[in-house]
Amino acid sequence: MGGPDEGRGGGTGGGPAGAEQMIAEARKAFFVMFGFLAVVWLVQLANYADHYDLSRDYGVVSGDVTTLPDVLTAPFLHWSWAHIESNSGPLFVFGFLAAYRGVARFLGLSLLVAVTSGLVVWFFEQGNADTVGASGLVFGYFGYVVVRGIFDRHLIDTLIGVVMAASFAYMLTVAVPGTPGVSWLGHLGGLIGGLVGAWLFRDRRLRPAAGTGTGTGTSAPPRDPANPRADLHKELGDLGLL
């Protein structure tokens, strides 16, 4: 196995070491999202038992200054079991893909998306609607996953983004006006936060040139001419696939 920094960020070569790093990142992302969903559902249980008073007390209300801090609590709250069920699947899928390249970056992204989604609702929502729900995070993670590979110059993430954009483009229909009973402003704010987050949290480390180190102070694994797959591993690593 390589040193602790080898393969970090998913952009280096190294064959088996790169594969181990990918598996480790996927495992961390899975447990992060599993824990996050567990918290959301536990909050829903408490909210249901309290006749949804938590949603009324900690949701975002447009123009109400006292609810500004609630932009951080609203994503954990829902109005019904159907509400939380509709959000849970997309939240896990897109959250997992967003957390895959680093948990710290994912936490920063989540904070940014919660704030942008909540603020757009707070500034522009009409009436006194009390807005809660994780759908703003869903749209933020979606936007982040779609464009992250472009900013990180990472081929596999770019391909994932293309697939996600093609498969879930219909989601954008509830990020524009016209869907009754849905906070399209929260969705739009989350989407904006995800796109901005992809740029803010992009991988700023240099990609390794052929035969050089990783750009972070570690050296590339020595090339073994006797290994018939050495050239393949190097090419895949340069593309960001290992």
What is the number of helices?
8
Shape: globular
The chain-level mean pLDDT equals 83
N- to C-terminal distance: 15 Å
Low-confidence regions: 1-14, 209-220
- CATH architecture label: Up-down Bundle
**Helix/sheet category:** mainly alpha
DSSP summary, beta strand count: 2
Sequence of strands across the biggest β-sheet: 1-2
| Main sheet overview | 2 strands, antiparallel
Protein name: Rhomboid family intramembrane serine protease
Subcellular location: Membrane
Membrane topology: Multi-pass membrane protein
Keywords: Hydrolase, Membrane, Protease, Transmembrane, Transmembrane helix
How would you characterize this protein structure?
It is a single chain. This protein is an all-alpha fold. The protein has helices at residues 16-49, 53-57, 81-99, 103-124, 135-152, 155-167, 184-200, 230-238, and strands at 60-61, 130-131. It has a two-stranded antiparallel ribbon. Helix 3 (81-99) runs parallel beside helix 5 and helix 4 packs across helix 5 (135-152). Residues 1-14 and 209-220 have low confidence and may be disordered.
Short description:
This protein is mainly alpha-helical. 57% of the residues lie in helices and 2% in strands.
Q: Could you give the topology of this structure?
A:
Layout (H helix, E strand, L loop, with lengths): L15 H34 L3 H5 L2 E2 L19 H19 L3 H22 L5 E2 L3 H18 L2 H13 L16 H17 L29 H9 L4
Antiparallel strand pairs: 1-2
Helix pairs in contact: 1-3, 3-5, 4-5, 4-7, 5-6, 5-7
